[in-house]
Structure formats: C-alpha cells, structure tokens
C-alpha cells in the first residue's frame, strides 16, 4: 500500500519572505507515530509543510492520504484533501482540530478520527485493507501507550529541524484549564497517561546526540513516573528542555532530580499576573502560588525559564501588558511567549463565549493567538492586539535583556541569559538564513553548548 502523510502548514509558515524559527523547531511526531503502525511492505512518505514546499499538483496519487490539521492549518488541510479526493484518493484526517469539529472535517475527508490515534488507527488500517473503512472512528475509554510501536523517525528529515530530537512520553495533562485543547480532545476516556518508564528510556536511547526536547504537556505531571524517568536518565549525559507547571516546580525534590538528569530549560504556563483570572479559567493549580519563588527555584537550580502568558482574560485591563513585561523582566526570565486568549472550538472557554455571544468570527486562519477573535471585556480588540505586539517588543528590547540578565543570581547565569535570550529573538534574520540553507540542524551544537556551559546544579 502507498501511504502519503502530510502535516499542512498555515500560510505564514510557508511564506517565501520570512519564516519565524518556531516553525523549524519540531518534527511531525504525531504522524511519525501513526506511521509506526504501518506494515514493512507499505511504502510511506511524510511531508511537513512547515519546513518544505510541496506542489500538490505534482505529487503522485497514493492509496491513502493522511492529514493532520491544526486549527490554523485547517484551511490548507482541506484544500489538500479536496485536491486528492478529486483524484479518487482515500483521505483520512485526525488530530486536534478534527476532534473539535468532526463534522466540518468530514466534508473534506473519507474518514475522520477523534481523540488520540493509537487505538482506532490500527483498526482503521485493517478495515481499509479489507475495503471496509468506516466514515468515522472515535477514540474510546481504553487509552494506553503500552505496546506503542517505535516512532518512525527514519521518515523525519532531521536536517530541516533545529530540534530533531523532540520526544513525547505521555499524552495529556492532569489539569483542566478551560482554554486548553486538552479536555475536549480526550473527552470520553483517560486524559493523562504515560508510557512505561522502560519504553520511554528506550525511545531516548534511540536518539543521537545530547539534546532532547520533551513536547509533553506536563512532563512533571505524574510524580512517580517523572522520578523514575529522571533516575533512569541520570548518567546518560543528556541536556533537555520540557514543560511543567508552577506547582510542580515548587514541589520539594522533583526539580532537583530533573536537573540531575539534564533539565536545562522549562516552559512554564504562568498565564497571567492577575490572580482573579485563574479561578475563572480553571487554572486552579496556579492559584495562590508564589510565581517569584518558582522562578528563583528554577534559576537556583540552573534552569532557564520560558514563561508563557495569555492576554485578554476577563480581568485584564489595558495595563496588563506593561505589568506582565515588567514582572517577567524583574524576575530575570530568559524567554517569554505571549498569546492573545483564543477560544478553540469545543473547549470550555469556547462554550462560554458562544453562550455569551462574544465570538466575532470563525475564520480559523486567525485563531493563531495573535489576533482577537472575540469581544474582550476589559479593553478594545485594538488595545489587545497592540498591547500584545508591544509586550513582545518591550520584553526583547536590549535594555530589558540587560536588566533581566542583571536580575540573575551570578555571573554564569548572567552570561547564559544574554546568550540565550539575545540569541533567540535578536537574531531572527540569521535563523532565517539558516532555514533557507536547509541545514537548520547545524545550529544544534550551539544550542547544546549554551545549555551545557551555563546550566546545571552546583554541587551541594
Ligand atoms: C510541537 C507543537 C508545535 C510545533 C509544530 C507542530 C508539529 N511539528 O507537530 C510548532 C512550534 C510549529 C507549533 C506551532 C503552533 N501551534 Co502547536 N503545538 C505543538 C505541541 C507542543 C506538540 C505537538 C506534538 O508533537 N504532540 C505529540 C503527538 C504525538 O501528538 P499529536 O501531534 O496530537 O498526534 C496525535 C493525535 O492528535 C492523533 N492524530 C493526529 N493526526 C492524526 C491523523 C489521523 C488520521 C489519526 C488517526 C490520528 C491523528 O494521533 C496522534 C498520536 O496520538 C502541541 C501540544 C500537544 N500536546 O499536542 C501544540 C499545539 C498543537 N499547538 C497549538 C497551537 C495553537 C499552535 C500555534 C497556532 C501557536 C502559535 N501561536 O503560533 C502554531 C500554529 C501551528 C500550525 N501549523 O498551524 C495548539 C493547537 C490548538 C488546536 N486546537 O489546533 C496546541 C494543542 C497547544 C495548546 N495547548 O494550545 N506547534
Ligand atoms: S496545565 Fe497546560 S496542558 Fe494542562 S490543562 Fe492547563 S493549559 Fe492545558
């Protein structure tokens, strides 16, 4: 059987003019995971439009086309799907956006899947080979990562990515923030589960080099699993980055074990400096937590912080941008990611906004967390978009990078701050040249050196 898999990209990612480095960071792990279920005799090709151009007219017709649309790439995904269906190709679609809006996706696909793919995808493959594929497969309660075949990393064009060693060892998250994709995606079954520690360690061992990036929503979410994983990784000489909550950082002992296993930077969802927003958005695990203490704990352990913030929550007024940037700079946070609150279809936030008639349009292209797609309560849409862009500009001003560096506890940490924060945002044009040279992976040694030279816990 000839199978073609495509991760379509939103328009900006394929722009001939300028492509932000973020699109060249991570390979398409979801599709490479599904490819693991194919037979050895199947012929499979995997394209990622974030890093390569595809001319759909020129591509041959496979027996099966597999597409994974995100909300912002839904339009492009449907365009590709319609093209291949017109040629008589069977098109299968699944993933986050399809799970949010299966009826919409079904207008462009022969088969749609809701929820994680591991359970229904093998059933579909059997049905498809038997000539009896159904129109829709819904993931049910029996979710597990046990027996997961190895991710088909041989299909990933490693040289096109800055972080080819991306890895996921769990699915979902134990929390229930109502703006997050998670509860809607995992509805009807378990919403947080992990691989066995042995399987996760084997997957890590298969990856060359030192650097790893865990894309798990919350790698520290199951303490027992996380501790066993970190103990297994200690001594491997890995340097890695991951995501975790404020709460998990403050837990005694866990962070230290992660650092001893090679943790060097953590993506943390602070979301808002307005405490009143947290309860409204069910971000319960952050309520009453000392954000400053979490940052200090990370810095003292030699871990850089990538802080994530959302603007436009109900309690936010026009002062929220300056307050957030000021707080982040004062704390010496190395990198920050800002978002305009975006109600993804079928989340709790979406349902609330629909009921209040606050959603202003359904142009999914603009659901990219940089546009205002709803009527905010505490400011105008214009103030919100302008404030969002200003926050980025202000946070990454050299004067603020210097101020952030001087908030660091020691000389080493200050150097690291300058190397990382400066390198990340200030050299976007250099990143762009590297992407165009189609050798993005060449930047990896520099990233490894930065993480190795400046990170880690001082001996007790
Ligand atoms: C890595 C990542 C990226 C990477 C690239 C994506 C990539 N290469 O896969 C980059 C940095 C480019 C990126 C960008 C953006 N991202 Co992003 N990203 C992620 C992240 C952290 C991990 C994705 C991943 O690898 N998951 C692990 C794999 C194993 O899971 P998976 O891909 O979902 O695949 C499984 C299932 O979905 C399903 N499945 C998927 N496809 C199919 C197809 C079939 C046929 C079947 C049967 C099953 C199936 O089976 C797979 C195995 O279980 C997720 C968070 C998350 N936990 O998923 C956010 C996430 C997907 N991103 C999100 C967003 C909002 C964005 C941006 C808009 C952010 C921005 N402001 O720029 C952009 C735009 C993306 C676009 N292309 O349009 C949202 C998506 C919301 C939505 N409803 O679509 C998420 C969920 C983050 C969040 N919590 O809000 N992202
Ligand atoms: S902690 Fe993060 S991943 Fe978990 S539900 Fe909240 S936003 Fe989603």
From TrEMBL:
Essential cofactor(s)? [4Fe-4S] cluster
Q: Which PANTHER family match?
A: ANAEROBIC MAGNESIUM-PROTOPORPHYRIN IX MONOMETHYL ESTER CYCLASE-RELATED, BLL1977 PROTEIN
Q: Which Pfam families match?
A: B12-binding, Radical_SAM
Where is the Radical SAM core domain positioned along the sequence?
159-377
To which species is this protein native?
Answer: Streptomyces kurssanovii
Lineage, top-rank taxon, reads Bacteria
Return the protein name. Answer: Radical SAM protein
> Per UniProt, which keywords does this protein have?
Iron, Iron-sulfur, Metal-binding, Methyltransferase, S-adenosyl-L-methionine, Transferase
Q: Which InterPro entries does UniProt cross-reference here?
A: BchE-like (IPR051198), Cobalamin-bd (IPR006158), Elp3/MiaA/NifB-like_rSAM (IPR006638), Methyltransferase_Class_B (IPR034466), rSAM (IPR007197), rSAM_horseshoe (IPR023404), rSAM_sf (IPR058240)
State the taxonomy lineage.
Bacteria, Bacillati, Actinomycetota, Actinomycetes, Kitasatosporales
């Amino acid at each position: 059987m000839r199978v073609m898999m495509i991760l379509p990209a939103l328009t900006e990612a394929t722009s001939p003019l300028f492509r932000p480095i973020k699109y060249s960071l991570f390979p398409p792990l979801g599709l490479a995971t599904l490819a693991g279920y194919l037979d050895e005799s199947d012929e499979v090709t995997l394209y990622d439009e974030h890093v390569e151009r595809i001319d759909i007219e020129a591509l041959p017709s496979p027996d099966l086309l597999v597409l994974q649309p995100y909300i912002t790439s839904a339009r492009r995904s449907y365009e590709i799907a319609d093209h291949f269906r017109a040629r008589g190709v069977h098109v299968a679609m699944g993933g986050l956006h399809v799970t949010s809006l299966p009826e919409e996706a079904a207008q462009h696909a022969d088969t749609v899947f809701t929820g994680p793919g591991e359970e229904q995808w093998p059933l579909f493959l059997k049905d498809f080979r038997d000539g009896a594929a159904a129109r829709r497969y819904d993931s049910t309660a029996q979710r597990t990562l046990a027996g997961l075949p190895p991710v088909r990393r041989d299909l990933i064009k490693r040289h096109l990515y800055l972080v080819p060693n991306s890895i996921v060892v769990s699915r979902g998250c134990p929390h229930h923030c109502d703006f997050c994709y998670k509860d809607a995606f995992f509805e009807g079954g378990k919403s947080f589960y992990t691989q066995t520690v042995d399987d996760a360690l084997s997957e890590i061992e298969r990856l060359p080099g030192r650097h790893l990036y865990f894309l798990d929503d919350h790698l520290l979410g199951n303490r027992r699993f996380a501790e066993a994983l970190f103990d297994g990784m200690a001594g491997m000489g890995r340097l890695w980055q991951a995501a975790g909550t404020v709460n998990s950082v403050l837990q005694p002992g866990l962070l230290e074990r992660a650092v001893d296993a090679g943790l060097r930077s953590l993506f943390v969802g602070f979301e808002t400096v307005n405490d009143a927003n947290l309860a409204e958005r069910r971000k319960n695990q952050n309520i009453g937590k000392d954000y400053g203490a979490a940052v200090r704990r990370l810095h003292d352990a030699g871990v850089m912080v990538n802080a994530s913030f959302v603007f436009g929550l109900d309690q936010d007024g026009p002062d929220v941008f300056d307050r957030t940037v000021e707080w982040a700079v004062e704390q010496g946070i190395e990198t920050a990611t800002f978002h305009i609150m975006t109600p993804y279809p079928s989340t709790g936030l979406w349902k609330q906004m629909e009921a209040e008639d606050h959603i202003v349009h359904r142009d999914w292209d603009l659901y990219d967390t940089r546009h205002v797609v709803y009527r905010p309560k505490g400011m105008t849409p214009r103030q919100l978009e302008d404030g969002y862009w200003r926050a980025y500009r202000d946070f990454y001003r050299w004067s603020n990078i210097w101020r952030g560096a001087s908030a660091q506890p020691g000389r080493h940490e200050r150097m690291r701050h300058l190397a990382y924060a400066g390198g990340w945002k200030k050299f976007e044009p250099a990143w762009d040249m590297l992407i165009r040279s189609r050798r993005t992976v060449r930047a990896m040694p520099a990233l490894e050196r930065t993480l190795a030279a400046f990170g880690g816990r001082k001996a007790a």
